Here is the input.
Amino acid sequence: MSQKNRVKLQCTVCKKINYNTVRNKKTNKEKLELKKFCPWCRKHTLHKEVK
Here is the structure.
């Protein structure tokens, strides 16, 4: 079974899911948080991993 799993990134401001990425859940235990551009807010905001 592969340990690399796809995760969705959700904007913390508007709550829209904008990005998909891959994270190795075996080596990175904490949830992913990245500052990305949100096309709905039209600015760079914090995006958190959602299920």
Observations:
- The chain has one domain: 4-27+39-50.
- The two ends are 19 Å apart (CA to CA).
- Residues 4-27+39-50 form one domain.
- The CA atoms of residues 1 and 11 lie 30 Å apart.
